[in-house]
Amino acid sequence: MIETATDGDVRVVTLDRPDRRNALTPAALDDLEAAIEAAEAPVVYLRGAGSAFCAGADLDAVAALDGRDAAEAFARRGQEVAATIGDADAVVVAGVDGPARGGGVELALACDVRVATADATFAETGATIGLFGAWGGTSRLPCVVGLGEAMDIALSGRVVDADAALRMGLVSRVVDEPRAVAAEIAGNDPAALRVIKTRLRDGASRNVQERREAEAFADLHADFDR
């Protein structure tokens, strides 16, 4: 259910299960991780086929989990895939067109840039069925939108439209064609993109981050040619 294609300097990764709104099975998580790891382009564009971005975990697969150990392993696997997205050398851009629900929101949160169309909607609906987003959502969502908004979204299960997502910082742009944003980013220097992503994601203390930032700038400057 994961399709890949190259478009210039952008590797397009498509969640391709439109009949189930691109809900993810364990096998699909494996394939998604492999697609991200194999990407050699400086930018990866993650999208969903059909009318949805991603409905999250396939609920049939969730219901089939046999016991606590299997449920924990499934959550861990989703966390690993989200970490692979965040740690990728490439800049990963999520293009959200249509609904993103549960694990779909969490995969988008793991991306470096989230861009939506006007038809995009977001919801963490786990609480409505007695679960919650366990693919890193409880750590990433507050970092992106703030604790208050994260509590509201996760506890209410409410649907957030594209304009509200833009206001709270869940997405950085609302555009007609999200792939154009991926192409725009890919037009920049690949080495600079890689360093900037690493520095912005650095969770060390400010002093350590600033030292690493200066060192990385010096590394890039060594190859700088006006």
Automatic annotation (TrEMBL):
Pfam families according to UniProt: ECH_1 (PF00378)
Xref: CDD domains: crotonase-like
Family note: Belongs to the enoyl-CoA hydratase/isomerase family.
Name this protein carries in UniProt: Enoyl-CoA hydratase/isomerase family protein
Organism of origin: Halosimplex aquaticum
